[in-house]
Structure formats: C-alpha cells, structure tokens
Design goal:
The structure is a single chain. This protein has one helix and 13 strands. The chain has 211 residues and is of the alpha+beta class. The chain has two domains: 1-41; 44-204, Galactose-binding domain-like (Jelly Rolls, Sandwich), CATH 2.60.120. A five-stranded antiparallel β-sheet has the order 2-6-11-8-9, with no helix packed on it. A four-stranded antiparallel β-sheet has the order 5-12-7-10, with no helix packed on it. It has a two-stranded antiparallel sheet with strand order 1-13. A hairpin with a 7-residue loop joins strand 8 (125-132) and strand 9.
C-alpha cells in the first residue's frame, strides 16, 4: 500500500510540474503573439518627416533672421556656416509665441513609446506639440517640453507620445513656441523662439488607424 501511495505521489508531482511548465510556455507564447500583432499595426520607420507646411505664424519679423517655414521640412540639416559665427542655416525660428503646422509624408502611428521627434536647434527652448489626423478634426496637445539640452547644438531633439491624444494615428503636427515659460520677459532677437529643424514620425501603419 505504501509503495502504491509513493508511486502515485511521485506521478502527481511530475504531472504538476509538467502542467506548470506548459503554463509558463503558454504565457510566453501569448506574450510573443501580442507583441507581433502590435508591431504589425505600427511599423518603425526612419524616413518619415514633414512634407508640407500647412500653416505658419512666424513672429518677430524684421528682427528674426530665420523665418522660412520650409526649413522645417524633410530630415534635420541645421548647422553653422562658420563655427562660432552664429550664422546658421537649416531651421526656422518660430519667434516669440510663433507656430508652425506640418503635414507629414505618411500617417504617424502610435507605436511603442514615443512616436514624434522634434529637432530643435541652437539652444534649449520650450515648445508645445499638438496633433490631428486631419485639418478638420480636433488638434489635441501632447504637452510642452523644454526641448534640447542645456548648451544647445544641432543634434538635439525632444519626443512625444501620440497615445496622449487618444488618436491611433495622425497626419498633422502643430508646434508652438513656449519660450516665455523659460524666460517670461523675453523679447524678439535674431533667432527668437524655438528653432525647428525637422519633425520626424517614428512609426507608421498600413491600416486605417486614424481613431
């Protein structure tokens, strides 16, 4: 009798272990399937930038030297003609409280983490990003950030998550200067406001995910 009990106890322990192992493998498998599904909906891309200026309000005209909104289109290319000269190229300075709206080359989808990258050159300045799937739908703010890094440069940026808007994908990005949040009494100067080099979408989607 004891031998039989011992036999069945050992068999039960082995069976329990096998069920436990199967459960763990099933969880891992299902997690992998979920990630695969998400990746199919939102595809990581490297060449999705602003394609068209849909609107702009560039302020500090007459003092601001960098007022061409088209400089915010395409990939980042800002620089300085002569090092230390403060003679720049490749970006648009929005001016104090200025703004720009870009139509992206493809829909920007809500992927894993941040989805929009704003290249802000020269110095550490604040901006706010709003997004919408179209010109007739509501623009929703993704919040304000001090964009760049103290000390400035031409390779700096800040990122935003479309998830905050409630949209699954957007086509329009509206960027507004918020430099007054850093320096409340700021006035116009030759590169006033946030200096927008480019706006990049980090994910797109083959599906219709506008909402």
């Amino acid at each position: 009798m004891k031998k039989n009990l011992y036999y069945w106890r050992k068999k039960f322990q082995k069976t329990s272990f096998h069920f436990f192992l199967i459960a763990i493998l099933l969880i891992i498998f299902l997690s992998g399937c979920t990630n695969f599904s998400t990746n199919k909906e939102a595809i990581r891309v490297d060449n999705l930038y602003g394609q068209e200026v849909a609107g702009a309000n560039i302020t500090c005209q007459g003092i601001n030297r960098y007022t061409d909104p088209s400089e915010a289109l395409g990939p980042p290319n800002a620089g300085e003609f002569v090092r230390g000269s403060r003679n720049y190229y490749g970006f648009v300075s929005l001016g104090i409280d200025g703004s720009i709206m870009l139509r992206m080359s493809l829909p920007v989808a809500d992927g894993s983490g941040n989805d929009i990258r704003v290249y802000q050159s020269v110095s550490y300045e604040a901006l706010e990003v709003w997004v919408s799937p179209s010109m007739i739908e509501e623009f929703v703010s993704l919040g304000s950030k001090n964009c760049g890094k103290p000390g400035g440069g031409f390779d700096q940026y800040c990122e935003f998550d479309i998830k905050e808007s409630g949209y699954k994908a957007i086509r329009y990005v509206f960027v507004k200067d918020k430099q007054r949040t850093q320096v409340p009494d700021i006035y116009c100067y030759e590169s006033a406001g946030a200096d927008i080099d480019a706006v990049q979408g980090l994910y797109t989607s083959l599906a219709d995910t506008s909402k």
